[in-house]
Amino acid sequence: MIARSPTEADERRHEARDRGLRHLWTAVRIGAALAGLALTAYVVRREGLAVIASAIREALPVLPLAMGLEVCRLLFETMATRVSLGARGRAVPLGRLLLGQLAAHAMLNVAPGGRAAAEVTKAALLSPWVGGAEAAGAGATMQAATFVGVGLMSGACAAGAYATGGEGTLFWLLVGNCALLLTLGVGMRALLRSPRAVAWVERRFPRHQGRIERFRDAARAGNLFAFGPALFLLLGMSCQVAQMRLLSGAVGGSATMAGAFAAQGVHLVMASAALFVPGQLGAREAAFGLAAKSLGTTPARAATIAILAHVSQLVLASLGFITLLAWRRAKRAPGAATPGTASSAQPPGPRAA
Q: What is the pTM (predicted TM-score) of this model?
C-alpha cells in the first residue's frame, strides 16, 4: 500500500489543532498561576504570618549571599548552554549569551513547565547567531541534560534524606525521581538521534524538511547522556544546595550538608510534581512545611526557607524580564543592527542555508 503524501489541507488541520492546544496550554498556565498564589496564601495563613515574618527578619543578613549563589547558578547554566551549542556557541558574543540566559532564567523560575519555556525563549533570542533550527536543537539537548542532571542530583539528595530521616517518604520519592528522570533524559536523547523519528516528523511537515534536518544535526551533537551540559547544570544545582544550607541555618534549621541535600531534594521532587505551577509557587512552601522533620526545624521555618529561596530567584527573574523586554524593543527598532552586519561586535559562524 502506497502512503498518501500530506496535502496542504492536512497541514492546515494540523496547524489548527496545534493552535487549539496552545490556547489550552495558556489556560492551564493561568489556572496554575492562580492556584500557586492561592496555595502560598494558604501556607502563610496556616503556619502563621507573624512566625514566618520573624524567621524572614532573622535570615535577612544572609539574603545577599543567597542571591550571589543564585547568580553563580546562572553562570553555570550559561556555560551549559554554550556547551550544548557546540562549535556554534563561539559565534554568540559572551555578553549576549549571558543576557539570553538571564531572560531564560526568568522563564525558568516564573513560567509553568519552566525549563521548556526557558529553552524556547533562549532559542528565539540566540537564533540570529546560530540559526533557529540549530538553537532549538541545542534547547532540546539542554532539556535532556536537565533530566540527566536533576536525576543525578536526586540520587545525591536521596543519600542526604537517608542520613537525616532514614528510609522515609522523601528518600523513596527521590530514588523514584532519580530513576524516572535519568530514563527520560537518555530516552529523549535516543529519540532525537533516531532516524525513524526524524523521518516521521519530516513526512508530517514536508515543507520544513530542511529545518528539521538542521534541528536533528544540532540535537544529535555530543554523547547519548549529554554529559557536558549536564555537568555544568549539576554545578549550578550544587550552588542551590549551598543556598539551602545557608538559608536553613539562618532560620534555625539544620546547617549540615546532609540537611542541605535533603532540602534540595524537597525542591527537586516538588519541581517534578508541580511542573505546571509557575516556579512551584506555594507548592514548594507547602512541601517544605511537610518535610520540616527531615530538615530539622519547624513547619513554619521550613516554609520560610522556600520563601527566601523564591525571593532570590524572583529578583533575578525580574532582571531577566527587563532584559527580555529591552532585547525585543531593540530588535524592533528601525535600523537595528543584526548579527553578520558591519556593526556587529562579532560575526557569526557558518550557518546552514
A: 0.76
The owner of cell 524592533 is 332
> Can you list the residues of the chain whose pLDDT is less than 50?
1-4, 337, 340-353
Place of cell 532564567: 105
Domain residue spans in the chain?
Answer: 43-330
Neighbour tally for 77: CB within 10 Å: 27
Gap between the Cα atoms of 86 and 79, Å rounded: 11
Q: Which three cell numbers stand for residue 266?
A: 524537597
- The identity of residue 302, as a single letter, is A
Cα–Cα–Cα angle for 65, 68, 69, rounded to 5 degrees: 95
Alpha helices in the chain (DSSP H): 8-47, 49-59, 63-85, 94-110, 114-130, 132-165, 169-192, 195-204, 209-219, 227-250, 257-273, 283-290, 292-295, 299-332
pLDDT of residue 349: 43
User: pLDDT at position 151, please?
Assistant: 93
Give the pLDDT confidence score for residue 150 in this predicted structure.
92
Three-state DSSP state, 6: coil
| Residue 78 to residue 125: CA distance in whole angstroms | 14
Task: Provide the b/e sequence for 153-168 (b: ≥16 CB within 10 Å).
Answer: bbbbbbebbbbbbeee
The total number of residues shown for the chain amounts to 353
Return the DSSP state at 282: T
Using the Cα atoms of residue 163, residue 165, residue 168 and residue 173 in order, give the sign of their dihedral: negative
Cβ proximity of 351 and 135 under 8 Å: no
How far is Cα 349 from Cα 166, in angstroms, rounded to an integer? 53
What pLDDT score was predicted for residue 182? 93
Q: How far is CA 74 from the centre of its chain?
A: 11
The DSSP secondary-structure symbol of 3 reads P
Nearest CA-CA partner of 137 in 195, 199, 230, 222:
222
Q: For residue 55, which of 261, 245, 306 has the smallest C-alpha distance?
A: 306
Rg (CA), the chain: 22
CA 34 to CA 18: how far, in whole Å? 25
